Every structure is written in structure tokens, then in C-alpha cells.
């Protein structure tokens, strides 16, 4: 899809007790072509197209692969993973986790649990039943409005996701995580480069132009430390 800066706003939201920021968010949703496309295509979020775009280029979601989806709600990434690894047909496996409840997705097993709960990693490993080929993380901390604080909180989630990936990925595995502009912390980036053969940042077209999000793609896991 070519959003060409999206399209001119056609839907205007009346105040009706809403704050300016609430109106802006609702107008953006109502006029976002990816939101409309997600509804038509049966995906639970516009984020499905971010993963689709990244995988169309990197091609790591192949039939039979075992995938972990951290921060799975509302389920868009898990839907794409199921479709591409063909887990609903019994060829691969998709395991997800989120602090929010996620309605069932055929072909995926998603547990309702905070990933930062000390029991979460063991529970995920139990469901995997072995090593994973791909660890996905679309997790982000709730925003406070203070950019530095939001960046640090989200990076803490990325670091936790990376630590989990080191434990569960099979050699050659892939780690994809959302980060915020301001750059991946130098220490984490250095660590990822030691553990993967290739590490890069990606800004998919499906990300809103005014969003500070980037995606960190690390491929070719060298093996457990």
C-alpha cells in the first residue's frame, strides 16, 4: 500500500466531551488507510502490515517455523505468523503472551500473563517444547508524555525480550523488536551484534510517519551463550 502521507482527512470528530488529544487520535484512526484495510482483511490491528512488510523483505516466517510473539495483543502479529508458518495446518507453532487477554486465534497458543512476571519465561518455554526460530516483540511501555522516560521504559522491555531470545532461539534464529527513535541503547546494540550475524533498524511504510517507532531486526543467532 502506498499511503503517500496517508490521505487527506475526510472524517472530522466533534468534541462531545472529548479532549483535543482524544479527538486527534480518533480522527487519525478513522482516516488511517491501514486501519480500514485491517478491518477488510480480517486482521485485529494495523500492526499486521508492519510485520508483513518486514517479513516480505527478510523472509524469516517460513512454513514449519516456531515463533514466539511477546506483547501479542490484540493479535495482529500472531495472525500473520500463523498464516506464514502454517501452524493452523500443523506445520509450525506460534506461542504468544500478553498482559491483556487476547481472544483465541486458530493456530496460536496465547497466554494471559505479564511477560515481566518471573514465571513467564518458563511458561513460554514449556509451551514451546523446544527451541524457537523467531522471537517477535511488539511490546512498548504505556506512554507518559515524557519522551526520555518513555524511551527508557520501552528499552527496558526490549532488553528483557532480547535476554529471553538468547535463551530460547535455535542457532540461525531471528529477533524482531519495536524500539523508539533516539536509538537503540549502545550496550544492547553491541550485545546483539555479538549474538547475531546481522543487526539493523527498519522503519516500515505501515508505521505512521509521525510515529517515533522503529523495528530492530537481528538475524543469524550465533547460538546460546
TrEMBL record:
Keywords: Cytoplasm, Methyltransferase, rRNA processing, S-adenosyl-L-methionine, Transferase. SUPFAM superfamilies: S-adenosyl-L-methionine-dependent methyltransferases. It is found in: Cytoplasm. GO terms for molecular function: rRNA (uridine-2'-O-)-methyltransferase activity. Its EC number is 2.1.1.166. It catalyses: uridine(2552) in 23S rRNA + S-adenosyl-L-methionine = 2'-O-methyluridine(2552) in 23S rRNA + S-adenosyl-L-homocysteine + H(+). GO terms for cellular component: cytoplasm. Its main location: cytoplasm. S-adenosyl-L-methionine binds at residues 75, 77, 98, 114, 138. It is an enzyme of class 2 (transferase). The active site is at 178 (proton acceptor). Residues 43-221 form the Ribosomal RNA methyltransferase FtsJ domain. Specifically methylates the uridine in position 2552 of 23S rRNA at the 2'-O position of the ribose in the fully assembled 50S ribosomal subunit. Belongs to the class I-like SAM-binding methyltransferase superfamily. RNA methyltransferase RlmE family. HAMAP family: RNA_methyltr_E. This is Ribosomal RNA large subunit methyltransferase E. The gene is rlmE.
